[in-house]
User: Which sequence fits this backbone?
């Protein structure tokens, strides 16, 4: 089995590039699914942040913030 060195290098590089591209798209897809199931911010977090800022949030304020975040998420 006599394989040329240049052919081996080309096949090796192509394999690495294809593997990197496939790995990138698979990991991006898994990460977006994870973020959809586990959003980074929820109502309790917004309530805690507003309390830390010295403001007592009403439910209307929290819902308005959540709606604006969902609108921004849907625009992308």
Assistant:
């Amino acid at each position: 089995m006599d394989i040329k060195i240049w052919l081996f290098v080309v096949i090796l590089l192509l394999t690495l590039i294809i593997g990197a591209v496939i790995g990138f798209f698979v990991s991006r897809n898994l990460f977006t699914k994870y973020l959809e199931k586990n959003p980074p911010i929820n109502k309790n977090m917004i309530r805690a942040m507003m309390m830390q800022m010295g403001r007592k949030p009403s439910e209307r304020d929290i819902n308005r913030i959540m709606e604006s975040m969902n609108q921004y998420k849907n625009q992308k």
Summary: The chain has two domains: 1-38, 40-76. The radius of gyration is 24 Å. The first helix runs from residue 5 to 37.
